[in-house]
Amino acid sequence: MRLAKTSETPDSNAGADQRTSRRRSGDEAESLALAHLQKAGLKLIQQNFLCKGGEIDLIMQDGAVLVFVEVRKRSSMQFGGAIASVTPAKQRRMVHAAQVYLLTKKTQPACRFDLVAIDGEEIKWLKNVIVAG
């Protein structure tokens, strides 16, 4: 019995290490995206807004517009790159999280959804990637 537990432990730790590495990569991507957007004049409102059913990586202010930003990073363009990784399901979760966030506001500002896609060393900022109806 003890041998079985010992053999399971490395597998469990390997998964934790992989998630930690993935999270670190995501944090680095968000930092790059944040710096890129701030250089363009946007102001950070909140980072990593989480709610049941969704999340927003960055919430920024662009003049009078509230911007919900998804950050995606891929090491290469294989399988379509960072842009292609934003599926319709992910878009629905982003819209849901934005709606939950907006419930905390007394007034409803103009909003848009942007994507910062990082493929290798290239950063692309796409505005209005989701039209929420």
TrEMBL record:
Signal peptide segment: none
GO MF annotations in UniProt: endonuclease activity; nucleic acid binding
SUPFAM superfamilies referenced in this protein's UniProt entry, alphabetically: Restriction endonuclease-like
Region annotated Disordered, chain positions: 1-29
Highest taxon above the source species: Bacteria
Composition skew (Polar residues), residue ranges: 1-12
Tagged with keyword Methyltransferase: no
Keyword list, A-Z: Endonuclease, Hydrolase, Nuclease
Family annotation (InterPro entries): Restrct_endonuc-II-like, tRNA_endonuc-like_dom_sf, UPF0102_YraN-like
Family of the protein in this entry: Belongs to the UPF0102 family.
Name assigned to this protein: UPF0102 protein DFR42_10621
Naturally occurring in which organism (per UniProt): Undibacterium pigrum
